[in-house]
Amino acid sequence: MMAFETHTSREDGQKLSQRRQKRAQVARACDGCRLRRTKCDNQTPCSNCATREQLCSNSGALKASTLAQATEEIETLRRRVKQLEGELNQRPKDQHNLPTPGESSLSARGFSPRHDSDDRVKQYWQGIQLRPARSSNEIWLGPSSLQFFIQRLGTFLTLNLQQAHSTQRLLPISASDNQLLNRPTARSHENSARRWSIGEPPAEGVYLNPIQEEYFINLFWQTFHTALFPIVDESQFKEHYQSLWTGGKERAPSALVDIIIAMCMQYGISALPADAQGLLVEGQDALVAGRWHYWRGQTLLSYELESPSLSTLQCHLLCAAYLCGGSFHNMMDNAVSTAVRTAYMLGMHLDPPSNMSRRERGIRSRLWWAVYIMDFKVGIKLGRPFMLRDSHSMPCLPDDSLDAARTSGSMFAPIGDNATWLSFNLHQIKLYIKARAAFTSYYDQDLPLSTGETVWDDSSVLEASAEVLAQHVRSLQDWVKGVPDALKLNRQNNGTPLSTDGTSLLIEGFLPLWLQRQRVLLELTYHHLSVNLYRPMISFGSKPQPGSVAEDIAMRCASHAIMISKITQQVLMESSILDGWHEAFHSQWNAAMSLIGFIVVYPHASLTGEARAAVDLAITVFDGLGTRFAVAADAAKITRELCVKVDFLVNRSRLRLDSLDFGMGSDDASIQLPGEVTSNVFASAPDERSNAFNAEMIPAFGSEFFDMAVDIDFWNDPGTLWPEFDDLVAHQGGF
């Protein structure tokens, strides 16, 4: 009897064990299915999560479903909080845990260093390692850069086109392509030193005579001085320039004079047709016009490194602007870095003392905020950490009152609404402050992503990050309301200035050219920053849900990019306001590539037709600028090539949609790219969401596309483009 009972109890135990094992199988359901109490098919991802486009995870952790379990969970969390608070209180006492100056600086900018022993610190966003054209070294470009967006676009097109044929690699015409810097060898050091300041055409470089110098210097006050940043006192500069002419024909060396001449040569010559640019560029590319003066100024600046002055800081900022116009972006980054350190050396990060004159306080304030603007520009353009710290208070904003304008050293008439020629600079600074806050907030997010995942792999994460951006949309709109009417571009048909309503501009006559340029550039800057801020919502992976915040912001990005194309094209057609202004070209290139990305992601959106028309306007802009400098001509060529690919994808998507409406299948093999001879190239093209592709196709399209598109913004390093620079420094070593 006892044996029977024992046998029975064993059987009951085995049955109970089997039942428990079956209950354990239910726990294998993913977290989402357990939460919704739905049946999970145990796939990765499961069909339910795939349908909802949500992250499918299985942590194996059961949720608290009873009061007792919830109480226990709360107590556990409380103990954990006390433990973390204790560790935090002990941290200042541990000298080994004190952050280094570099670490604290990075943390203040939202870019925290990663420690293997601490998983709680933020990590850098994904970027790319890019080797620019004709360069042997790779550089890192961050997530806000256009090059990173182009890479994502190129990958998407590779997956969806799978072009097996090879096309000729397209590269923009640059200085090295045209043998721009092949120069005759200098005859002698004495000859080189004598010729640098007189009107004879030298064998080793192109320098200007006094009359030519005055012509280009006068351009500065109507252009960069009023529409970039007013960091040079005009009256003091003119006195300084006059004092340099002591011998009648030869000017004493001055780094500030040389860089201003270089900037204005680059701008002035780029405004002329190529056949009218003359010997000042030696029949070559206008983007590097003035390079002789630039390099001579660099030689002089090298002697001021140990004892910098306000003039030194002015030179570094103007050099950065010159390098940006010539598409030497890594050199620009270095110039801005030097400007930031120089500003700290000079104490520009502190409010000027009260015993300083109003004129001196004004120039110091404008200099600091010019450093702030350039630091932000290079940061978002290249996707790299900001160099200025946000953790401390900034100096007061510059004054734009009538009294401040009267003592600024420049004589420009008031423009109304209590605004002056300095008001453009003030409101541009306010715009950059708001934009920087938005960028920092967005890229400072601690996203719940697994290793190797990006924000574009999960629609729910993308939506959460979009909500962060949405908080700053109103902030930018508030900035628009604060801009005085005197700085706003009027629109036809009662259109709203600084908006995306699509109305044409009303370019007023009988206005100073500097004021018209301020109005145009202020609006273009607003749209350009908006495009860069909202572009991450154009996702080539997980597409946002219709009507979601992410989709709304992607539409905003396209709307601002459309306005850039419309404004730039109209201004170039009807006026000379933007002739030779390289920043307008870079803004248009940025908008065109963003629009192409938007079109392929949203081929059926209500805004797609207008976006496609805006790309055609961009090509018109590139064609017009291409008659003045070669990079714009290549931008037009590249954009046309991409439009063929984009139109094919849009038409194919429409055929598929029509086939679904009529219950028919579509034959992609019958669709060919115009002008191409293919053999069922697209017959096996994957679905737009497919992650599988033939690796052999990447060099055929994706890599080539990326190279030619990125080359628009990247040229060689100075040692490659200007191999004789060492000889030039040796010849001019006495300066």
UniProtKB/TrEMBL annotation:
Gene3D superfamilies: Zn(2)-C6 fungal-type DNA-binding domain (4.10.240.10)
Ranges where the Zn(2)-C6 fungal-type domain occurs: 29-58
Key words, A-Z: DNA-binding, Metal-binding, Nucleus, Transcription, Transcription regulation
CDD domains attached to this UniProt entry: fungal_TF_MHR (cd12148), GAL4 (cd00067)
Keyword Membrane: no
GO cellular component terms attached to this protein's record: nucleus
InterPro entries, sorted: Fungal_SecMet_Regulators, XnlR_reg_dom, Zn2-C6_fun-type_DNA-bd_sf, Zn2Cys6_DnaBD
Entry's Gene Ontology BP terms: DNA-templated transcription; positive regulation of transcription from RNA polymerase II promoter by galactose
Top-level taxon of origin: Eukaryota
Feature: compositional bias, Basic and acidic residues: 86-96
Region of interest (Disordered), residue spans: 1-20, 86-118
Protein's recorded name: Zn(2)-C6 fungal-type domain-containing protein
Organism per entry: Penicillium olsonii
